[in-house]
Amino acid sequence: MLTKKRRTLDFRTILYLNILLMFFLIISGSEAVLLCSFVLSAVALADTGAWRQAARYSVGFAALAAVQYALGMALEAGVQNTVVFLVQMVLFLALRVYPFVGLGFALKEGKNIAEITTALDRLHLHSGVVLSIVVMIRYLPAMAADFRVILDAMRLRGIPISLKFVAFHPMKAIEYLIVPMLFRSEKITEEFSGAALVKGYTSGARRTSYFDVRMTAKDTAMLVISTASLVLCTFV
């Protein structure tokens, strides 16, 4: 029996949110803009139906904000401690990266490579740009999985895995970690090249898709509300 897939925000909407949030967090970065950015990313994540992940994401943001606020109050109260200052700065930066993590989760939960490729094609981007973005999105999870396999192999061979080992034995660390990743990357490159050839990426014909990729009223509402809310938070 065929099941109807949940219609989530279009990839182009998520891409627009990434650019929009980046722009306003750079030019303003105020607490109002940060909170608005978090809410928008949380809505995008909840729209995929991943309610538990959205709840954990919200709790994580609240915890980071609470700790960062407490450390900031301590510094304002006259606490002179380099460690406290550094931790507060790290949390300050982490909070401003956090909304993009939420959008990444939304992309992972709600979209597949075929939908992303079709959406990028409809932006009339150059095929080289489309392939670069798709390969990056597809390869990052694979790279993380390959890295875990390498670490498991090192544990089986009794090779210590720690920053101390990397610091005191940099050449061995390169041999055990980087070299296997390079060979694996070469194999993945060949696989991607073959897949691109089979799927006809070099063809100039218009691509079709199994998925119904289109902008809906939900996307239009998100585009308007996100832009208006961030403008108001910045200039009002």
UniProtKB/TrEMBL annotation:
Localization terms from the record: Membrane
Name of the protein: ABC-type transporter, integral membrane subunit
Entry keywords, A to Z: Cell membrane, Membrane, Transmembrane, Transmembrane helix
Keyword Protein transport among UniProt keywords: no
UniProt cross-references to InterPro entries, sorted A to Z: ABC/ECF_trnsptr_transmembrane, ECF_transporter_component
Topology term for the membrane: Multi-pass membrane protein
Keyword rRNA processing tagged: no
TM spans (from-to): 14-42, 83-107, 127-147
Main location: membrane
Pfam families xrefs: CbiQ
GO CC terms of this entry: plasma membrane
Organism lineage string: Bacteria, Bacillati, Bacillota, Negativicutes, Selenomonadales
Coiled-coil portions: none
